[in-house]
Design goal:
Strand 1 and strand 2 form a beta hairpin. The chain is mostly helical and 125 residues long. Strands 1-2 form a two-stranded antiparallel sheet. The chain has helices at residues 2-8, 15-22, 26-37, 41-59, 64-70, 75-84, 87-96, 99-108, and strands at residues 112-115, 120-123. It is built from eight helices and two strands.
Length: 125
Amino acid sequence: MIHYIESHYAEHINLQTLSTFSHYSPQNIIKIFKEVTNLTPTHFIQQVRLQKAVELLEKDTLPINEVAVKVGFTPNYFTKIFLNISVFYLMNIAISISIKNLKRLLYQTSLIQIHSPNNKFSAHP
């Protein structure tokens, strides 16, 4: 199931999809995922999608909305999920994404405004 999710993360995946693929009941799938990953299937899918989004943001200059769609999120949901992840995870993303892409990500999600000419940040009111 993990391989299936990692191969089909951009598609619509839910418990029923996993149940059909694996021939396990949804309850058994939840139990297996918690035992193996310490996550629910939904959280595991979100984690895979976020990881793929980070990879796209590292190597591409696609708009955030396009990145969201490419990894299986709606743009609004991607922004909501991204904003709700822990500070620790954000720090890991900040380290792994170039500063340019981080500025673009934060600007496009309206977290900050970049003021020219010295490129200083300020919190978005």
